Amino acid sequence: MAELKEITKKLKEIHEKIKAEIPWEPIGHTPMPEIPDLRSWDMKLLQTYKPFYAPFCDLCCFCTYGKCDLTEDRRGACGIDIGTQQARFVLLACLMGCSAHASHAGHILDVLIEKHGPDKKINLGTSVDLEAPNIRTVLGLKPETLGDLKIAIEYVYKEIAHLLDSTHMGQEGSCLDYESKSLHAGMLDHVGMEVADIAQIVGFNYPTSVADTPLVDLGWASVDKTKPVILFVGHNPATSTVVVDYLQENNLYDKVELCGVCCTAIETTRYSARAKVVGPFSRQLFFIRSGIADVIMTDEQCIRTDMPQEATKAGSAMIAALDKAMYGLEDATEQNADEVVKKMVEEKKHFAILDPKKAAEVAVKVAMTIAPQRRKEWITEQEAMELAKRCSLCGMCEQVCPNLFDIGKGISEVAKGNFDVIKEIFNLCVGCGKCEEECPRNLPIFKIMQVGASKETWKMRTGRGPVMDTEIRTVGAPITLGTIPGVVAIVGCSNFPDIRDIAEIVDEFARRKYIVVLTGCSAMVAGMWKDADGKTVYEKYPGDFDAGCVVNIGSCVANAHISGAAIKIANIFAALPLRANYEVMADYVLNRVGAVGIAWGAYSQKAASIATGFNRLGVPVILGPHSSKYRRLYLSRKEENEWKVMDARKRQIVETNEPSPEHLAYVCETKEKAMVMIPKLCIRKNDTPQGRGIKLNHYISLYKKYMGGGLPEDLPLYVRRDADIPLVYKKEVKAYLTQIGWKPKEPVGLPTLIGTYPTKVPLDSVIH
Amino acid sequence: MSQLAPSLPFHRVNILTGTRTARLIEDPVEYAKQIAKAERPLLVLGPRLMKITLGGRLLIEYALDIAKAKNIPTCATATVKSKMVELGVKPDSVYDVVEIINALKDPEWKGVRKEGNHDLVLFFGFRTDLGEQGLSVLKHFAPHLKTMTMCKYYYPHADFSLPNIRKDEQWKNILEGIVENLKKE
Known about the structure:
Chain A is an alpha/beta fold and 768 residues long. In chain A, α13 (381-388) packs across α15 (407-415). Chain B contains six helices and nine strands.
């Protein structure tokens, strides 16, 4: 009885928070879900897509009983085994990522509420009525003002604390429960990201409800180094937007060059299309060491931890503008701005300045003062040759390279006057600087690499924010029927095996009429390639969310608009209620929305949480080879697994023998293999024969292109009836199917997992 | 020229894996003996085999020589199948590297020839970071099998590994020696 009272009280509190009295939709089964509420859904996913652990280390060194050896079935002093330890690590990574976005969201929300007030209405333009699909689905709240977003972010904070608690020694003892918690953290991450980007769009008046956003300059060569240059590094636009305002208010915008690395660059171009995008995270150190930036302003996430030292080496001034990274610098927030300028110019001191207005004033004044005194020239080929002659070819640089290439070979060729190798190598460089640190002769390798770096400039379409409801109405049917073969979401950081891979993947799938969307560093590097006509993918393909498009959604936090688009398909196109109805949305996406994420250069913990959030929503993710270091994948075994679903029309559980999607989190080694996996992971049980035929056409065609001809080994698993066979390969496929004794099978009328596992969600909920 | 420690990972990103590290073998006779002892070996081929040449031959040709010498079934990962087709060889199986490792983890899996799971798995031609992570999976979760590497780097997570080899000629001799000795076994 007491327990029932407690539950009722809790539910009442939740209903108050989500404003249950506003009847925009009936409230589903999981408003503001806590850890156990979606656990059954997670366990159902994990039954098919079992965690695959690749331990980085044999040991656990978390507590004072350890280090504990976890090899050969040994358990740690607390009782933990090696699999559970990996799962704990993954949860920690997801929580770091989720916290980064949530904290960014909370901070920017406070800044914008201070500026506009909590009652500032959320208005995402005439084409976006469903403004917050993640918040509505997860919490059951329809946010109408900036103040409402606080409710969402406070929910995320509370859950993060609860999840983090479970990683303390001696608690959770099941890897599957840790995975369920990681999936929970991933879902929360999409809520946090959505809060951040909605707040930014509303508060900074970013573009929204428009596809044709401005094309902005991309590449370091686009930065006019004859002017004072201010470089923004990080993710949070709280300061960069104020710098833009300061320049405009003081009629200085023509006199100072603004540029950015990583997501702050994307954010700043959403605020002012005159800002320049230097490039992704992997070009951060390279650009800083070029010395082109007169002032470097850091905010949060994805900024190097040795920024003050690097700034000093390059002769740049540096301001830490957010409390999350203060680098041990003196806090000058309360000091007189002109005094701070004086110290920065004369004493070459760096400062933390947490008041954006003061930081902006100081940055501009310092940049304008020191720029005329600084030499900002690239190294000449002759100078590079002279430096490179000191290389002894010891090989130490190769041994520490995370991308495993031989930089020494490039340097030695520079010494001979051959710059081709270093140009090629520069495309593989992930920009960590370990080679230079390790060099026994202290060669300035990054400086030498300037001769290999392209001086080309490109165009990137600036981030456009949410996918419009009107677009979803157009593409909802073709996506779920399969006639648009898939949505390919290329997201995440720049730890690429080769920076050119992204543009190639984008071009291949846009040409094949997939919907291609991008965010973050991947959105930048997609633009760093031109076709024979001199066009980037942003100039070559349209920016509206439709077949054959290339859409830059925005920065990392804009990833919530991609998961949001998948939810919108279920809600707007299929008319399924989304309010506090996470399982129904995720089930719909898993079984009917042919979407796949590509995190080809995943590097940060944020990438881990973003991907895991997509996984809980039923979107599979392909990761690049470095991502095996995340320690965990979700893999099925297509021959051994059961592939049962409920046919909701017949109300029968049926064995489909169809592994769609085959994996949820998958690593592959080469872009060619990724190209073959992408069309396969877009296959869904709901495909019509026409849609399946189109999807198989791409799968077979890419298989033939990259796998040396023939037909995919698992093709028979995806052919349900003759009508599924693509016309162009009909003869070959039919001959093969006959040869192996393939038998046709009935397609499932309305595939769902609801009804196949214990859940409060009734089967009728998925019938629309 | 810096010192090249034979039994520390060449690429430092893989350094210090923990308590259990591979047995380093540089004698092709002993390497071949270990392979010959296996009842159901498997050779897993990675995409680097298609890019690297050694003594004027592609590395994949050495790999196929090893397979042929002892009738070892092959698993083509990534897009290796395309090169095998070009060379007129049909792989016994096609899986990506994480998929074959996932199957190998299962002691009940029937193997690529349906004769039971493999007792020795040879890896050849992978990025060291991905290869090392894959070997770690099997070290921890597949006690029913042993692993071996054929690349010129030391792989601590394997059961048997070659040392870090600076000179290609030495590596070539070892690979050719393994083939010769397998033929004799």
